[in-house]
Amino acid sequence: MPDMSKFADIKIDPAIVKRAARGDARAHEIIYRAFATPVYSICLRFTRVPAQAEDLVQETFIEIMRSIAKFRGEAALGSWIRRIAVTKSLMYLRSAWTARSQSLAEDWGEYTAGDAATHGVSAHPDDALDLDSALANLPSVSRTVVWLHDVEGFTHKEIAQFMGKSESFSKSQLSRAYQRLRPMLQLEHEQTASDAELMRSC
Amino acid sequence: MAGDRKEDEMIYGLTMDERDALQQGLRRLPETPPPRVVWDRIRAQAEAEGLIKRSLTRRPSTWYAMGLAAAVALAVFVAPGLLRSPEPAFPTIPPVATVAAQTPQESLRALQVESRQIESDLRALPDDPRVMRASTAATIHELEERIAAIDYQLNEPGAQLSPDNEEIFWRERVRLMKTLFRLRYAQAQRTAF
Lengths: 202, 193
Prior knowledge:
Chain A is mainly α and 202 residues long. Chain A has helices at residues 14-21, 25-47, 50-67, 77-99, 104-109, 116-119, 131-136, 140-151, 156-163, 167-201. In chain A, helix 2 (25-47) packs across helix 8 and helix 8 crosses helix 10 (167-201). Helix content of chain B is 72%, strand content 0%.
Protein backbone atom coordinates (compact mmCIF):
# COMPACT_ATOMS: atom_id res chain seq x y z
CA MET A 1 0.00 0.00 0.00
CA PRO A 2 1.46 3.40 -0.89
CA ASP A 3 2.20 5.84 1.91
CA MET A 4 -0.86 8.08 1.81
CA SER A 5 -0.15 9.56 5.23
CA LYS A 6 -0.13 13.32 5.57
CA PHE A 7 3.30 12.99 7.17
CA ALA A 8 4.69 12.10 3.77
CA ASP A 9 3.63 15.46 2.28
CA ILE A 10 5.76 17.48 4.67
CA LYS A 11 9.27 18.28 3.51
CA ILE A 12 11.98 19.73 5.71
CA ASP A 13 15.24 21.11 4.40
CA PRO A 14 18.09 18.74 5.36
CA ALA A 15 20.03 21.79 6.62
CA ILE A 16 17.32 22.31 9.25
CA VAL A 17 17.61 18.66 10.31
CA LYS A 18 21.38 19.04 10.67
CA ARG A 19 20.93 22.15 12.79
CA ALA A 20 18.39 20.30 14.93
CA ALA A 21 20.89 17.48 15.42
CA ARG A 22 23.25 20.08 16.89
CA GLY A 23 20.55 21.13 19.37
CA ASP A 24 19.53 24.31 17.58
CA ALA A 25 16.31 25.43 19.26
CA ARG A 26 15.06 27.34 16.24
CA ALA A 27 15.51 24.31 13.95
CA HIS A 28 13.56 22.16 16.38
CA GLU A 29 10.82 24.76 16.46
CA ILE A 30 10.62 24.67 12.64
CA ILE A 31 10.29 20.87 12.74
CA TYR A 32 7.67 21.16 15.46
CA ARG A 33 5.64 23.72 13.50
CA ALA A 34 5.74 21.44 10.46
CA PHE A 35 4.70 18.22 12.19
CA ALA A 36 2.76 19.33 15.27
CA THR A 37 -0.65 19.06 13.62
CA PRO A 38 -0.32 15.54 12.16
CA VAL A 39 1.35 14.31 15.35
CA TYR A 40 -1.35 15.81 17.55
CA SER A 41 -4.07 14.50 15.23
CA ILE A 42 -2.79 10.94 15.39
CA CYS A 43 -2.41 11.12 19.18
CA LEU A 44 -5.91 12.53 19.51
CA ARG A 45 -7.35 9.84 17.22
CA PHE A 46 -5.86 7.14 19.39
CA THR A 47 -6.57 8.59 22.83
CA ARG A 48 -9.61 10.84 22.15
CA VAL A 49 -8.60 12.94 25.18
CA PRO A 50 -7.01 16.31 24.29
CA ALA A 51 -4.94 16.57 27.47
CA GLN A 52 -3.48 13.10 26.92
CA ALA A 53 -2.85 13.87 23.26
CA GLU A 54 -0.97 17.03 24.28
CA ASP A 55 1.21 15.02 26.66
CA LEU A 56 1.93 12.52 23.89
CA VAL A 57 2.89 15.32 21.50
CA GLN A 58 5.30 16.56 24.13
CA GLU A 59 6.78 13.09 24.64
CA THR A 60 7.07 12.60 20.89
CA PHE A 61 8.97 15.83 20.25
CA ILE A 62 11.20 15.34 23.27
CA GLU A 63 12.07 11.90 21.87
CA ILE A 64 12.77 13.53 18.50
CA MET A 65 15.17 15.94 20.19
CA ARG A 66 16.90 13.08 21.99
CA SER A 67 17.26 10.93 18.87
CA ILE A 68 17.54 13.23 15.88
CA ALA A 69 21.35 13.07 15.94
CA LYS A 70 20.95 9.35 15.16
CA PHE A 71 18.54 10.01 12.28
CA ARG A 72 20.44 9.03 9.13
CA GLY A 73 17.86 10.08 6.57
CA GLU A 74 17.39 6.55 5.21
CA ALA A 75 13.64 6.99 5.62
CA ALA A 76 11.77 10.27 5.20
CA LEU A 77 11.81 12.48 8.29
CA GLY A 78 8.00 12.35 8.34
CA SER A 79 7.95 8.55 8.45
CA TRP A 80 10.47 8.56 11.27
CA ILE A 81 8.48 11.11 13.28
CA ARG A 82 5.23 9.26 12.61
CA ARG A 83 6.74 6.03 13.92
CA ILE A 84 7.78 7.77 17.14
CA ALA A 85 4.30 9.29 17.56
CA VAL A 86 2.62 5.92 16.95
CA THR A 87 4.95 4.12 19.36
CA LYS A 88 4.37 6.72 22.07
CA SER A 89 0.60 6.59 21.57
CA LEU A 90 0.51 2.80 21.71
CA MET A 91 2.70 2.78 24.80
CA TYR A 92 0.18 5.09 26.40
CA LEU A 93 -2.75 2.93 25.34
CA ARG A 94 -1.03 -0.19 26.59
CA SER A 95 -0.32 1.45 29.93
CA ALA A 96 -3.95 2.51 30.21
CA TRP A 97 -5.07 -1.01 29.46
CA THR A 98 -2.57 -2.35 31.97
CA ALA A 99 -3.90 0.05 34.58
CA ARG A 100 -7.34 -1.35 33.98
CA SER A 101 -5.89 -4.89 34.15
CA GLN A 102 -7.13 -5.58 30.69
CA SER A 103 -5.43 -7.10 27.72
CA LEU A 104 -5.87 -5.87 24.19
CA ALA A 105 -8.26 -8.71 23.47
CA GLU A 106 -10.32 -7.95 26.53
CA ASP A 107 -10.61 -4.37 25.41
CA TRP A 108 -12.32 -5.57 22.30
CA GLY A 109 -14.53 -7.75 24.45
CA GLU A 110 -16.01 -4.61 25.98
CA TYR A 111 -17.64 -3.95 22.70
CA THR A 112 -20.27 -6.39 21.64
CA ALA A 113 -23.05 -6.14 19.10
CA GLY A 114 -25.54 -5.39 21.83
CA ASP A 115 -23.56 -2.36 22.89
CA ALA A 116 -23.88 -0.63 19.56
CA ALA A 117 -26.50 1.79 20.76
CA THR A 118 -24.27 3.08 23.53
CA HIS A 119 -20.76 2.57 22.17
CA GLY A 120 -20.85 2.77 18.44
CA VAL A 121 -22.73 3.29 15.28
CA SER A 122 -26.28 2.16 15.12
CA ALA A 123 -27.07 -0.35 12.42
CA HIS A 124 -29.83 1.94 11.26
CA PRO A 125 -28.52 4.51 8.78
CA ASP A 126 -30.81 7.23 10.11
CA ASP A 127 -29.14 6.96 13.49
CA ALA A 128 -25.65 6.74 12.12
CA LEU A 129 -23.19 9.36 13.24
CA ASP A 130 -20.78 10.88 10.81
CA LEU A 131 -17.60 9.02 10.02
CA ASP A 132 -15.53 11.03 12.47
CA SER A 133 -17.85 10.23 15.34
CA ALA A 134 -18.25 6.63 14.22
CA LEU A 135 -14.50 6.21 14.28
CA ALA A 136 -14.24 7.90 17.67
CA ASN A 137 -16.84 5.52 19.06
CA LEU A 138 -14.96 2.40 18.06
CA PRO A 139 -13.06 0.67 20.86
CA SER A 140 -9.55 2.04 21.08
CA VAL A 141 -7.86 -1.07 19.67
CA SER A 142 -10.05 -1.26 16.56
CA ARG A 143 -9.86 2.47 16.03
CA THR A 144 -6.08 2.32 16.23
CA VAL A 145 -5.86 -0.61 13.82
CA VAL A 146 -8.18 1.07 11.30
CA TRP A 147 -6.19 4.27 11.42
CA LEU A 148 -2.79 2.61 11.17
CA HIS A 149 -3.88 0.40 8.29
CA ASP A 150 -6.21 2.56 6.23
CA VAL A 151 -4.81 6.04 6.79
CA GLU A 152 -1.16 5.61 7.72
CA GLY A 153 -0.67 2.66 5.38
CA PHE A 154 1.00 0.25 7.79
CA THR A 155 0.78 -3.46 6.95
CA HIS A 156 -0.82 -6.00 9.28
CA LYS A 157 2.64 -7.31 10.02
CA GLU A 158 3.83 -3.87 11.13
CA ILE A 159 0.69 -3.28 13.17
CA ALA A 160 1.13 -6.67 14.83
CA GLN A 161 4.70 -5.69 15.76
CA PHE A 162 3.55 -2.34 17.16
CA MET A 163 0.92 -4.03 19.29
CA GLY A 164 2.83 -7.13 20.24
CA LYS A 165 0.11 -9.27 18.67
CA SER A 166 -0.31 -11.55 15.67
CA GLU A 167 -1.20 -10.51 12.13
CA SER A 168 -4.52 -12.34 12.40
CA PHE A 169 -5.33 -10.23 15.46
CA SER A 170 -4.80 -7.10 13.40
CA LYS A 171 -6.93 -8.48 10.55
CA SER A 172 -9.77 -9.48 12.83
CA GLN A 173 -9.77 -6.06 14.52
CA LEU A 174 -9.98 -4.42 11.12
CA SER A 175 -12.77 -6.72 10.01
CA ARG A 176 -14.83 -6.02 13.12
CA ALA A 177 -14.24 -2.30 12.81
CA TYR A 178 -15.47 -2.40 9.21
CA GLN A 179 -18.66 -4.05 10.35
CA ARG A 180 -19.26 -1.10 12.66
CA LEU A 181 -18.34 1.50 10.08
CA ARG A 182 -20.31 -0.07 7.23
CA PRO A 183 -23.58 1.78 7.96
CA MET A 184 -21.62 4.99 7.46
CA LEU A 185 -20.75 3.90 3.95
CA GLN A 186 -24.38 3.20 3.14
CA LEU A 187 -25.35 6.58 4.52
CA GLU A 188 -22.68 8.35 2.50
CA HIS A 189 -23.67 6.43 -0.59
CA GLU A 190 -27.31 7.40 -0.14
CA GLN A 191 -26.31 10.98 0.52
CA THR A 192 -24.21 11.07 -2.64
CA ALA A 193 -27.05 9.57 -4.69
CA SER A 194 -29.48 12.05 -3.21
CA ASP A 195 -27.15 14.96 -4.01
CA ALA A 196 -26.73 13.72 -7.56
CA GLU A 197 -30.52 13.43 -7.94
CA LEU A 198 -30.94 16.95 -6.61
CA MET A 199 -28.36 18.26 -9.07
CA ARG A 200 -30.11 16.54 -11.99
CA SER A 201 -33.46 18.05 -11.01
CA CYS A 202 -32.04 21.60 -10.94
CA MET B 1 -4.72 -11.08 -7.72
CA ALA B 2 -8.47 -11.53 -8.22
CA GLY B 3 -8.28 -14.37 -5.71
CA ASP B 4 -6.64 -12.04 -3.15
CA ARG B 5 -9.36 -9.45 -3.67
CA LYS B 6 -12.05 -12.08 -3.22
CA GLU B 7 -10.34 -13.34 -0.08
CA ASP B 8 -10.05 -9.80 1.30
CA GLU B 9 -13.71 -9.19 0.62
CA MET B 10 -14.55 -12.40 2.45
CA ILE B 11 -12.35 -11.48 5.43
CA TYR B 12 -13.44 -7.90 5.77
CA GLY B 13 -17.05 -8.13 4.66
CA LEU B 14 -16.64 -5.10 2.41
CA THR B 15 -16.26 -4.95 -1.35
CA MET B 16 -13.11 -3.29 -2.64
CA ASP B 17 -15.15 -0.27 -3.70
CA GLU B 18 -16.59 0.04 -0.23
CA ARG B 19 -13.12 -0.22 1.29
CA ASP B 20 -11.80 2.44 -1.06
CA ALA B 21 -14.68 4.72 -0.15
CA LEU B 22 -14.08 4.17 3.54
CA GLN B 23 -10.34 4.77 3.27
CA GLN B 24 -10.88 7.95 1.29
CA GLY B 25 -13.42 9.14 3.85
CA LEU B 26 -10.99 8.49 6.68
CA ARG B 27 -8.15 10.29 4.93
CA ARG B 28 -10.37 13.30 4.37
CA LEU B 29 -11.11 13.70 8.07
CA PRO B 30 -9.83 17.05 9.32
CA GLU B 31 -6.63 17.38 11.32
CA THR B 32 -6.43 19.27 14.57
CA PRO B 33 -3.55 21.54 15.57
CA PRO B 34 -2.36 21.34 19.19
CA PRO B 35 -2.81 24.32 21.50
CA ARG B 36 -0.01 26.90 21.21
CA VAL B 37 1.12 26.30 24.77
CA VAL B 38 2.35 22.79 23.89
CA TRP B 39 5.49 24.11 22.21
CA ASP B 40 6.29 26.26 25.25
CA ARG B 41 6.12 23.16 27.43
CA ILE B 42 8.30 21.16 25.05
CA ARG B 43 10.89 23.92 24.86
CA ALA B 44 10.96 24.33 28.64
CA GLN B 45 11.50 20.59 29.14
CA ALA B 46 14.09 20.40 26.38
CA GLU B 47 16.03 23.32 27.85
CA ALA B 48 15.85 21.82 31.33
CA GLU B 49 17.21 18.52 30.02
CA GLY B 50 19.85 20.25 27.92
CA LEU B 51 18.46 18.83 24.67
CA ILE B 52 18.45 22.19 22.94
CA LYS B 53 20.52 25.27 23.35
CA ARG B 54 18.81 27.59 25.76
CA SER B 55 16.51 30.09 24.11
CA LEU B 56 18.40 33.20 23.17
CA THR B 57 15.70 35.41 24.56
CA ARG B 58 17.37 34.50 27.83
CA ARG B 59 21.02 33.91 26.98
CA PRO B 60 22.59 35.53 23.94
CA SER B 61 25.51 34.01 22.12
CA THR B 62 28.94 35.24 23.03
CA TRP B 63 29.41 36.80 19.62
CA TYR B 64 26.35 38.97 19.94
CA ALA B 65 27.21 39.93 23.48
CA MET B 66 30.67 40.94 22.31
CA GLY B 67 29.21 42.85 19.38
CA LEU B 68 26.89 44.72 21.66
CA ALA B 69 29.68 45.50 24.09
CA ALA B 70 31.58 46.98 21.14
CA ALA B 71 28.51 48.99 20.19
CA VAL B 72 28.27 50.35 23.70
CA ALA B 73 31.97 51.25 23.68
CA LEU B 74 31.50 52.98 20.35
CA ALA B 75 28.56 54.92 21.69
CA VAL B 76 30.42 55.97 24.83
CA PHE B 77 33.80 56.89 23.38
CA VAL B 78 33.26 57.80 19.74
CA ALA B 79 29.78 59.23 19.51
CA PRO B 80 30.43 62.17 21.89
CA GLY B 81 33.35 63.19 19.68
CA LEU B 82 31.18 63.06 16.61
CA LEU B 83 28.50 65.09 18.26
CA ARG B 84 31.03 67.81 19.15
CA SER B 85 32.37 67.88 15.62
CA PRO B 86 30.94 70.87 13.66
CA GLU B 87 30.60 68.78 10.48
CA PRO B 88 29.96 65.10 11.13
CA ALA B 89 31.76 62.78 8.72
CA PHE B 90 28.54 60.89 7.97
CA PRO B 91 25.54 63.05 8.62
CA THR B 92 22.52 61.21 9.83
CA ILE B 93 18.90 62.18 9.40
CA PRO B 94 17.50 62.32 12.90
CA PRO B 95 13.77 62.69 13.32
CA VAL B 96 14.25 66.40 14.01
CA ALA B 97 10.74 67.17 15.15
CA THR B 98 10.66 64.40 17.71
CA VAL B 99 14.19 65.01 18.97
CA ALA B 100 13.48 68.65 19.43
CA ALA B 101 10.17 68.06 21.12
CA GLN B 102 11.07 65.10 23.32
CA THR B 103 13.22 64.78 26.37
CA PRO B 104 15.47 61.70 26.46
CA GLN B 105 12.97 60.01 28.79
CA GLU B 106 10.08 60.73 26.42
CA SER B 107 12.10 59.50 23.47
CA LEU B 108 12.91 56.28 25.32
CA ARG B 109 9.30 55.75 26.26
CA ALA B 110 8.22 56.32 22.66
CA LEU B 111 10.67 53.67 21.49
CA GLN B 112 9.41 51.24 24.13
CA VAL B 113 5.81 51.83 23.08
CA GLU B 114 6.73 51.37 19.42
CA SER B 115 8.58 48.17 20.27
CA ARG B 116 5.58 46.79 22.15
CA GLN B 117 3.32 47.69 19.23
CA ILE B 118 5.50 45.80 16.75
CA GLU B 119 5.59 42.82 19.10
CA SER B 120 1.83 42.87 19.19
CA ASP B 121 1.70 43.07 15.38
CA LEU B 122 4.10 40.13 15.16
CA ARG B 123 1.91 38.04 17.44
CA ALA B 124 -1.07 38.79 15.22
CA LEU B 125 0.65 37.24 12.21
CA PRO B 126 -0.08 33.58 11.46
CA ASP B 127 2.38 30.94 12.63
CA ASP B 128 5.42 30.15 10.55
CA PRO B 129 4.50 28.05 7.50
CA ARG B 130 5.17 24.32 7.54
CA VAL B 131 7.85 24.59 4.92
CA MET B 132 10.21 27.54 4.83
CA ARG B 133 13.30 28.20 2.76
CA ALA B 134 16.41 27.56 4.81
CA SER B 135 17.75 31.02 3.99
CA THR B 136 14.55 32.72 5.23
CA ALA B 137 14.55 30.59 8.36
CA ALA B 138 18.19 31.48 8.96
CA THR B 139 17.53 35.21 8.52
CA ILE B 140 14.59 35.09 10.92
CA HIS B 141 16.70 33.14 13.36
CA GLU B 142 19.51 35.68 13.13
CA LEU B 143 17.15 38.62 13.68
CA GLU B 144 15.62 36.90 16.69
CA GLU B 145 19.06 36.23 18.09
CA ARG B 146 20.07 39.85 17.71
CA ILE B 147 16.85 41.02 19.35
CA ALA B 148 17.39 38.51 22.14
CA ALA B 149 20.94 39.77 22.62
CA ILE B 150 19.65 43.32 22.99
CA ASP B 151 17.00 42.15 25.44
CA TYR B 152 19.73 40.47 27.41
CA GLN B 153 21.70 43.70 27.65
CA LEU B 154 18.63 45.76 28.52
CA ASN B 155 17.57 43.33 31.24
CA GLU B 156 21.02 42.55 32.63
CA PRO B 157 20.97 43.94 36.21
CA GLY B 158 24.71 44.58 36.24
CA ALA B 159 24.79 46.42 32.91
CA GLN B 160 23.89 49.88 34.32
CA LEU B 161 23.38 51.47 30.93
CA SER B 162 23.44 55.22 30.67
CA PRO B 163 20.21 56.76 29.35
CA ASP B 164 21.92 57.49 26.02
CA ASN B 165 23.11 53.92 25.61
CA GLU B 166 19.75 52.57 26.66
CA GLU B 167 18.18 54.63 23.89
CA ILE B 168 20.70 53.27 21.38
CA PHE B 169 19.73 49.74 22.33
CA TRP B 170 16.01 50.47 22.17
CA ARG B 171 16.36 52.19 18.80
CA GLU B 172 18.26 49.19 17.44
CA ARG B 173 15.64 46.85 18.89
CA VAL B 174 12.85 48.74 17.11
CA ARG B 175 14.79 48.66 13.85
CA LEU B 176 15.36 44.90 14.06
CA MET B 177 11.75 44.26 15.07
CA LYS B 178 10.55 46.21 12.04
CA THR B 179 12.79 44.14 9.77
CA LEU B 180 11.53 40.93 11.39
CA PHE B 181 7.95 42.05 10.98
CA ARG B 182 8.45 42.85 7.30
CA LEU B 183 10.01 39.43 6.72
CA ARG B 184 7.32 37.53 8.63
CA TYR B 185 4.60 39.57 6.92
CA ALA B 186 6.01 38.77 3.47
CA GLN B 187 6.22 35.11 4.48
CA ALA B 188 2.59 35.15 5.62
CA GLN B 189 1.51 36.79 2.36
CA ARG B 190 3.31 34.12 0.32
CA THR B 191 1.68 31.36 2.35
CA ALA B 192 -1.77 32.90 2.03
CA PHE B 193 -1.63 32.96 -1.75
